[in-house]
Write a structure and sequence with these properties.
This protein has 872 residues and is an all-alpha fold. A five-stranded mixed beta sheet has the order 2-1-3-5-4. Helix 5 packs parallel to helix 7 and helix 6 packs antiparallel against helix 16. It is globular.
Length: 872
């Protein structure tokens, strides 16, 4: 779609308008990058970077000439994966076992270099982590600015370009994290900007795509998006050139020179990833196979690839759905106006022949339609691309809004007043939809907190800037006289967003946390609480080695925080899965790992009989790991459409059948033990939040022994594994623990499960030594104490804890305010139960009233915390 020649800026736009718009975009970019999204892949990146800046890979077989060239710069890339015990093997020349295609290697090196920029132990807390945070903010701001500049280059007014760019980056806020794919979106915004400059006959600007693609094809595999866009644009402009002869004046036209530039650069953009990558042409082929192949369908079932209508996906897709509604409405309104082009009088007289034609009417751009279509499709089918959609679509949104303004002016000049009123009504409906995105807090009950009020003021400022922009540009005949007001609104909106950003940073990162966990900005931003911080220190202190069964998001953290083997650079204990997914693992292993985690809460006799019958038909025992392998293979054949069925319904039924059989087959403890033994797994590091059912399974097994546990993670060791022999010979009290907290927690928890009363009593007393409040500890102390008749000890312990946390609550300590309240309520609840057992009704009622009162305060505080999480 083409901007009209009658630009409204010629009528006068104060300089401070576009300055305010730029500040608004910068503030929106900063606020979009301040959310705590999580960063399992951030640790993967730093571990890979650590390996690549050391010389361990130089002697690996099958290295390309590009890899050997990078050796001269101190960067050593390889196809052989050093971190996992189950990743894809590397056999040179084998198209199935092509190893690890690390398309993100440049991001990995950058992250590790930033983390270690100020020296010190690379595994510990370092000042360099702040550089990664700055990098995230800088990249988000530049991404928003390039989207704004792209809209301006296409011809949109600064107010429209700034508002659209600010929205595009803000609605993507929950998808802006510390990962390599964010860099791809940054480069995509640069690409749209360069294509916009090319469209304005600045053809040489496309040469900037060469360094953009060289960098982009080594920071992330998302470089296939620019390749698709360039060929899509080329096809669109060639088609419009062919249609011009039959439909003159309808389509955007590009000169032959411009098409030659675009054709050459499309070829260059396509060739760069295969030439300027350490992995050669495999770098170019691999992402296309994942995107278009049958295996890609299964890989896209990962939580971050799920479509926006799937509630199980990550991130908040709600704002983007509203954005698509607004985008769709503007798109429809553009086409409605386009087909109402004012008619021109026939040239009957000389004076009429000299009348100007309507040459400022927009033209159709098939290339833009293609770019918008493929981007919307990608972002709807996979929430991973919501950030991409929010950035790439905003320049076209601003352009369509600008075209609508131009068409309205033309219609008004032609004195079509009735139609003009109709268009104003349509515009009013658009502003209603726009306000749903801009002021989402109006859709929920009002709570008069300063944070909510500030957020609304910011959004009102943005909305007012759009309203007055429309008034000035659409209706008022002398915009220069009143243009000061929208400039003022934009400045207010930018200042408000800046205050919101500052307040959000204080509340999320610098204010004493409600949970009592003091962390740096970087560690809060990557969700460090989800990582086994103490557990991996236990690994390192006790020299754990072998293979560990782990969580998807913990793999990178586990590998990064182990001291590598000096000769090879490999971690002593290799992971079973990590966030590199299809880049390092075969699809079968992903399905295998996921099935091992999907364990039933209890054994179902009815379904298990069917499992045994199926195993009998295969000639295998239901506890034989080969039977489980057969089930996985059969399921994958169905998912990859390697089996033929008479109907889709029959295929879905077969897929559901094998998923059910796998689910209940793995519920047999003996089979589970045999599989882990067959795969050589000697350690299991489990998240108590994510894998509670697995924790119970390992706890029931006699072949696995618990040696470490804290409030978030537990570590089991296989009893008969040779790697664990020396470790298991020691008493738990002789093992090395990261701190007194984890020592008392682990040994106390293990002893509490002893069948010997004396040992269980010692475990309860050891748990009483834990200084921090943990609900698991309180409940275990109470249950063991009641079982062993330790009522006096329990009364004394919980009374002390009640008094301790009551004093903290009364002092209104900010640090750990929520944690203190929960501990106080829990203590009162358990004291009430003790009083009830002792038949003391007065004390029972008093503690019950206290617990009820504090629980109400907890609910109020939790509600406030939820509001803040939603707000920020």
């Amino acid at each position: 779609m083409e901007l009209s020649n009658t630009t409204l800026e010629k009528k006068g736009t104060p300089q401070w308008v576009w300055i305010g718009c730029v500040l608004l975009v910068i503030a929106a970019g900063l606020h979009s990058a301040d959310e705590i999204v999580g960063g399992g892949d951030t640790w993967v990146a730093m571990e890979c970077g650590r390996f690549q800046v050391n010389p361990w890979a130089m002697n690996h077989p099958g290295r390309t000439w590009q890899m050997k060239l990078l050796d001269k710069f101190g960067i050593h890339i390889t196809n052989k994966d050093p971190y996992s015990a189950a990743s894809r093997a590397y056999i040179p020349g084998d198209h199935e076992n092509f190893g690890w295609v690390n398309q993100n290697w440049l991001t990995h090196v950058m992250f590790f270099k930033m983390k270690t920029a100020f020296g010190g132990d690379w595994r510990g807390l370092q000042k360099g982590e702040l550089l990664i945070v700055i990098y995230k903010f800088l990249q988000a701001v530049l991404t928003a600015l390039f989207a704004y500049w792209a809209a301006r280059a296409l011809g949109a007014h600064p107010l429209l370009a700034g508002t659209a760019a600010a929205f595009g980056i803000l609605i993507s806020r929950s998808f802006v994290d510390l990962r390599a794919n964010v860099s791809t979106i940054f480069f995509a915004s640069i690409m749209i900007f360069l294509l916009a400059l090319w469209r304005e006959r600045r053809y040489r600007q496309l040469l900037w795509m060469i360094p953009v693609m060289i960098l982009g094809s080594n920071v992330h595999g998302g470089f296939i998006y620019p390749i698709i866009i360039f060929w899509l644009a080329l096809g669109g402009y060639l088609m419009m050139k062919l249609l011009h002869s039959s439909l003159p004046g309808r389509f955007v036209q590009v000169s032959g020179r411009g098409l030659r530039w675009l054709t050459v650069m499309a070829v260059v953009v396509t060739l760069i990833p295969g030439i300027f990558s350490p992995f050669g042409w495999e770098n170019l082929i691999h992402p296309f196979l994942v995107a278009t192949g049958s295996e890609g369908v299964v890989w896209r079932d990962v939580i971050e690839w799920k479509p926006i209508w799937d509630s199980n996906g990550f991130g908040n897709e709600g704002p983007y759905i509203y954005f698509l509604l607004v985008f769709g409405y503007v798109f429809v309104e553009w086409w409605m106006l386009y087909f109402f082009k004012p008619a021109q009088p026939q040239p009957r007289r000389r004076r009429q022949r000299q009348m100007p034609t309507v040459d400022n009417w927009p033209r159709i751009d098939l290339a833009h339609l293609g770019i918008m279509g493929i981007t919307v499709y990608m972002s709807v089918m996979s929430r991973r691309f919501i950030f991409l959609g929010g950035v790439v679509l905003t320049p076209f949104l601003a352009l369509m809004m600008q075209d609508i303004l131009s068409m309205v002016i033309v219609i008004r000049e032609k004195k079509q007043t009735t139609f003009t009123k109709f268009i104003i009504i349509l515009t009013g409906l658009f502003l209603v939809l726009f306000s749903l995105v801009t002021i989402p807090t109006f859709c929920v009950p009002f709570e008069p907190t300063s944070e909510i009020i500030l957020w609304r003021v910011s959004n009102i400022g943005i909305l007012l800037s759009v309203l007055f922009c429309n008034y000035i540009l659409w209706i008022h005949k002398k915009p220069r006289r009143v243009a000061v007001f929208p400039a003022f609104c934009v400045w207010i909106a930018a200042a408000s967003l800046g205050i919101v950003f500052t307040w959000a940073m204080w509340d999320m990162y610098y204010r004493p946390p409600a949970d009592g966990e003091v962390r740096t900005v970087f560690r809060r931003m990557v969700g460090i609480n989800d990582q086994p911080v103490r557990g991996i220190k236990f690994f390192d202190a006790n020299r754990v080695k072998g293979k560990v069964f782990n969580e998807w998001t913990n793999g990178g953290f586990i590998a990064f925080h182990q001291m590598p083997i000096p000769q090879t650079g490999e971690p002593p204990c290799k992971v079973f899965m990590d966030g590199r997914s299809q880049a390092a693992y075969k699809l079968r292993h992903f399905a295998y790992w996921r099935s091992l985690r999907n364990i039933p809460k209890k054994k179902n006799t009815q379904y298990y009989n069917q499992v045994k019958q199926l195993a009998g038909k295969m000639g295998l025992s239901p506890t034989d790991p080969k039977f489980f392998d057969r089930l996985i293979d059969e399921l994958l054949k169905i998912q990859l459409k390697e089996k033929e069925f008479r109907s889709t319904k029959e295929a879905l039924h077969a897929e559901q059948y094998y998923q059910t059989m796998i689910h209940f087959a793995i519920g047999e403890l003996e089979l589970y033990e045999n599989i882990l033994e067959r795969d050589g797994l000697n350690v299991a590091l489990l998240s108590l939040r994510r894998s509670r059912d697995l924790f119970r399974v390992f706890g029931r097994s006699k072949k696995w022994s618990l040696l470490y546990i804290d409030s978030r993670h537990a570590i089991f060791f296989r009893v008969d594994a040779p790697e664990n022999r020396e470790l298991l010979r020691k008493e738990p009290s002789l093992l090395k623990y990261p701190d007194e907290y984890s020592r008392h927690f682990s040994i106390g928890y293990i002893n509490c499960h002893s069948r010997k009363p004396q040992t269980a009593a010692q475990g309860a007393k050891m748990l009483m030594e834990v200084k921090r409040y943990e609900p698991m500890i309180y409940d275990m102390i109470y249950n063991v104490g009641m079982k062993l008749g330790m009522q006096n000890d329990l009364q004394k312990y919980f009374s002390q804890k009640r008094d301790l946390y009551l004093s903290k609550v009364e002092k209104k300590e900010e640090l750990g305010r929520l944690n203190n309240m929960v501990a106080l309520a829990h203590s009162c609840q358990l004291l009430g139960q003790l009083s009830k057992k002792a038949q003391k009704p007065d004390e029972t009622q008093r503690y019950h009233n206290e617990a009820t009162y504090y629980n109400e305060m907890i609910s109020s505080l939790q509600e406030r915390e939820k509001w803040k999480q939603w707000l920020w």
